[in-house]
Every structure is written in C-alpha cells, then in structure tokens.
C-alpha cells in the first residue's frame, strides 16, 4: 500500500505556518506499514488542489489530504475532491445537523458560512468531528481513496488515529510496521561517512526491495545522521532487524557514532562520566559558556557536572586558573587550563577551551585556531588542536561540540583501558 500526503494552505507556501501535519501523518503511516512515497504542499485553489490530487492518485493507492475543510471561501478541498472524483458535491442534512449540534452544545450560534461544512462529495464516508466542527471525509476515487482531514493539528491527529490508519490497514489487507533508527556521528563529512558505509549500502541494495535502506542526513551543528529503515510484520521483528543493522553500521563507523536517535553529544559525555564515577569541571575562553550550557541541558547534570568558569581574557586565565604570563591560545595553554580547573572546581576531570573565534586574528593566529584541553585522573593533561572555519558564531558552536566529542573519545579510551570506578552511582553522589 502506497500513500502520498497533500497539505493544503497558501500559508504553507508563504512560509507563515510550519507544516507539522505532514510529519505527523507520515510518522503514523510508517508505524502502520504504509509506504509514504511523496509529500507536497498546495495553495487554497480548487484547480491546483485538484491537479495535486490527480497526480498523487496516478502514483499511489491512497492520498491523505489535510487542510481546506473550514467554513470560509478559501476552504475548497471538498470542491477539489468532488472535481477529481467526477461526482456532485451535495449538502448532507445529517452532517449539517451534526455541525449545528456541536455549536449548540458549546453554547455558540453557528454562522451561516459553517453550513458549507455539511457539503459532502457523493459516495464519500464522513468522519464525524470530535474536537472541532469540520467533518473529515473518506472519498473513493475508482479503486483508490482520498482522505480529507482538517488542518487544525489536534483535530487532524485525532481523525488519523481513529479513522484513517484503521481504514488504510484494512484496505492493505496485511499489517506491517515501518521503523527507523538514527545513528548520530561526529568527525567526518557526509561524503566520507557514506564512503565508509558503501559496502553495507551495496549489500542491502543487492538483497532486493525488502531489505533495509540507509539514508544520510547532514544536520549542521549536530553532525551527520545515518538513518536505517526497515519494514517488518510486527514491531518486535522490526526492532530485531534494526538491532542487526545497527551492529553492522557501528562496525564500519567505529567511534564516529556518539548517539542513537535523539541522544546528544552531552548525553554521551554524561554516560561516560557516570560509568566512570567521575565529575567534570570546565574552563571556557572563546566558547564563552556554550560548553557549560549544553552540559547543564542534560537532565541529571548535577550528578556529574561540578561547575565551570568563563576565563575569557588572558588576565582572568592567569588570576583564576594560575596560568603563567604569555600566549594563551595554544595546546599547552589548553592543557594547563584543564588541569587548573580540576583543582579550582574540585572535579575529577578538567575540560578547557581556548582559541580565536574571530573575526580578527589574535596572538598572530587566524580565526578558527582553537584548542581543547583535557585532564583525566592519573594522566597528564593534554591539549588538542581543533582546526575550525566559518563565522564567529559557527566557530564557537562547532568548537563546542568538537570539544565535547574530544572529551567523549578520551573518556571512552580511559574506560576501555580500565580507568574509572565500578560504582558510578555511589561515586557520583558522593562528589556532591
């Protein structure tokens, strides 16, 4: 069963409203095992809506249309569906009575224009409204079907769950589940990640149309996401297939992977600190508090984040952290800052940032010349170079997540080498 989604509303084309309806419908279709092959937006115009529906019906078994069922003159989805189906649009007395009753129950007087919501294409089945006043429609068009839903998100969602998905599943004749999992990576660009995964992608393509599919999603400041999608008879089978694919992808990606689905870089850092039973202190220069802000955004941060300082000026670095006079944008300065903040904050692990965000050079160094300092228990502090590019804002943001990634990798290395405590909960709580 293939479906397409048509979102109706000129406001969508003008960028005045964000189309969240399509995302919800697509997610629910996938959960029901219905393949969504295309999604489009169209303005409030009968001919254009009709053209969009005709094209969709030529390719798909079902079309889910949202928007244009209100009472005003620009709500013309009903007219467009009747035109495409080649049937009359009639005013259904029972539907009109239902709309009038909704207004009576709410103690409101129905405007004459609301009577248009009783118009139904001949042969259509009405989805009675429960939250609003606009009835939904299930409209047969030859062997195919068009579902017309209100554009108000709450009303649309309720009808999708109550009427559309069950009807689609019944028409499909076979229940299936489409499920996805996203591996989040940092450290390589999209093309480089794709090259690493080329052997697996080729193998899946050779396995045929029922195999898992892999897609690459560049997400700016959050790295490259690798999405794997499977279709299976039930949720348990789909989850097992995703587990298998995740293992295969991780074997190729290695430590580029820092999270799954919605897991952030700071979540990965938190997990490693908790596993080791360590707390973290941060000293920031060019990032100006961005590192600390991301860390405290992670729920439960007080268990492992001891605190931080923003030592932006060279004098502040010397006064607060005890750095020797001299250049403060270097690997050695970053290492010294990380070691010092451990003592100042009283943490197990120290993390530091220093660099030139621009737009002008500093200490004779070009913008984007940045360093991360890391000090782990029982090891000498180290300074790591970060070569960044872009605007001042981009350098600071990329530097923040890159620094957290360097810390993540260092913590993973320490754990695999046998560092860290075996009782993370107890160690973390005792450090408060």
Short synopsis of the structure:
With 432 residues, this protein is an alpha/beta fold.
Could you characterize what this model shows?
- It is a single chain.
- The protein is of the alpha/beta class.
- It folds into three domains: 2-172, Molybdenum Cofactor Biosythetic Enzyme, Chain A (3-Layer(aba) Sandwich); 177-260, Alpha-Beta Plaits (2-Layer Sandwich); 275-430, CinA-like (Maf protein, Alpha-Beta Complex).
- Helix content is 42%, strand content 23%.
- The chain has 14 helices and 17 strands.
- The chain has helices at 10-13, 20-31, 46-59, 77-85, 93-105, 153-172, 190-207, 235-253, 265-276, 290-296, 314-321, 331-345, 392-416, 424-430, and strands spanning 2-8, 35-42, 62-66, 89-91, 119-121, 125-127, 136-141, 144-149, 177-185, 213-218, 224-232, 257-260, 280-284, 305-310, 349-355, 369-375, 382-387.
- Strands 2-1-3-8-7-6 form a six-stranded mixed sheet, sandwiched between helices.
- A hairpin with a 6-residue loop joins strand 16 (369-375) and strand 17 (382-387).
- Helix 2 (20-31) runs parallel beside helix 6.
- The longest helix is centred in the last third of the chain and has 25 residues, at 392-416.
- The radius of gyration is 29 Å and the shape is elongated.
């Amino acid at each position: 069963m293939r479906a397409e989604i048509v979102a109706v509303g000129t406001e969508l084309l003008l960028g005045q409203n964000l189309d969240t309806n399509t995302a919800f419908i697509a997610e629910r279709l996938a959960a029901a095992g219905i393949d969504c092959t295309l999604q489009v937006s169209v303005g409030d115009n009968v001919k254009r809506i009709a053209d969009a529906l005709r094209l969709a019906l030529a390719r798909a078994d079902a079309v889910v249309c949202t928007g244009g069922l209100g009472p005003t003159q620009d709500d013309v989805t009903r007219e467009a569906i009747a035109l495409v189906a080649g049937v009359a649009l009639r005013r259904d007395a029972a539907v009109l009575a239902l709309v009038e009753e909704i207004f009576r129950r709410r103690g409101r007087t129905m405007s004459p224009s609301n009577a248009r919501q009783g118009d139904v294409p001949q042969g259509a089945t009405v989805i009675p409204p429960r939250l609003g006043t606009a009835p939904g429609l299930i409209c047969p068009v030859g062997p195919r079907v068009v579902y017309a839903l209100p554009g108000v998100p709450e009303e649309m969602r309720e009808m999708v769950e109550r009427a559309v998905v069950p009807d689609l599943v019944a028409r499909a004749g076979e229940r299936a589940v489409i499920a996805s999992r996203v591996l989040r990576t940092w450290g390589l660009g999209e093309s480089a990640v794709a090259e690493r995964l080329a052997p697996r992608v080729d193998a899946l393509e050779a396995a045929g149309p029922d195999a898992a599919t892999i897609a690459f999603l560049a997400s700016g400041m959050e790295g490259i996401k690798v999405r794997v999608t499977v279709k299976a008879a039930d949720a348990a089978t789909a989850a097992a297939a995703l587990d298998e694919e995740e293992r295969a992808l991780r074997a190729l990606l290695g430590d580029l992977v820092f999270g799954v689905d919605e897991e952030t870089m700071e979540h990965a850092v938190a997990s490693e600190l908790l596993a080791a039973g360590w707390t973290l202190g941060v000293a920031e220069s060019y990032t100006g508090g961005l590192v600390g802000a991301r860390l405290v955004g992670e729920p439960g941060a007080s268990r492992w984040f001891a605190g931080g300082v923003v030592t932006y000026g060279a004098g502040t670095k010397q006064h607060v952290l005890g750095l020797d006079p001299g250049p403060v944008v270097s690997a050695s300065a970053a290492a010294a800052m990380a070691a010092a903040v451990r003592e100042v904050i009283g943490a197990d692990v120290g993390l530091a940032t220093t660099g030139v965000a621009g737009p002008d050079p500093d200490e004779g160094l070009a913008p984007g010349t940045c360093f991360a300092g890391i000090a782990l228990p029982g090891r000498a502090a180290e300074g790591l170079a970060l070569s960044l590019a872009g605007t001042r804002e981009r350098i600071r943001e990329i530097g923040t997540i890159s620094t957290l990634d360097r810390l993540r990798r260092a913590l993973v290395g320490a754990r695999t080498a046998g560092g860290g405590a075996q009782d993370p909960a107890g160690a973390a709580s005792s450090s408060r």
